[in-house]
Specification:
This protein has helices spanning 8-21, 41-45, 69-89, 94-106, 111-131; strands at residues 28-33, 49-54, 59-63. The protein is α+β, with helices and mostly antiparallel strands. The protein has two domains: 8-91, Double Stranded RNA Binding Domain (2-Layer Sandwich); 96-131. The protein starts with 7 loop residues before the first helix and ends in a 7-residue tail after the last helix.
Length: 138
């Protein structure tokens, strides 16, 4: 494995994790593409974005978190390990859980739920109205 611009301990830990998951460097297809988005002109001219594909599982990762290509290579491999572990365990990753939570929050409420919310609001306003002073008129 090539050096990634991280400490040897981190590189060794990643190497061990990849071996444990059965990921070989020969199974990885790696491309370097030009980045995009925020960051100005420099990010759009350099090929620091890493696109990584694990052929046996057909998982793809695109990493553009850092300006350094070497560090993005390390982070892409780490993300690939995370995805493969989640796929093997059959659980949703924390990112997928956050997306699902937002989707549930944005989902329209049913007619029954809306009626229940309105009833709660009405009850709360009646409770507050009971606290008003006796001489108060609208």
């Amino acid at each position: 494995m090539l050096p990634f611009g991280v400490s040897p301990e981190k590189a060794q830990a990643l190497r061990a994790r990849m071996e444990r998951l059965g990921i070989r460097e020969a199974d990885l297809e790696e491309r370097f593409v030009k980045g995009g988005g925020a960051g100005g002109q420099k990010v759009n001219k350099t090929s620091s974005c890493v696109w990584l594909r694990h052929r046996p599982s057909n998982l793809e990762v695109k990493c553009q978190w850092e300006r350094s290509q070497a560090l993005n290579r390390f982070l892409a491999r780490r993300e690939l390990c995370d995805q493969l572990e989640a796929k093997q365990r059959g659980v949703l990753s924390s990112r997928q859980q956050a997306v699902e939570k937002i989707r549930r929050q944005k989902r329209r409420r049913s007619r029954r739920q809306r009626a229940h919310v309105l009833a709660d609001k009405r009850q709360h306003s009646e409770k507050k109205a009971a606290r008003r002073s006796v001489g108060f008129t609208e």
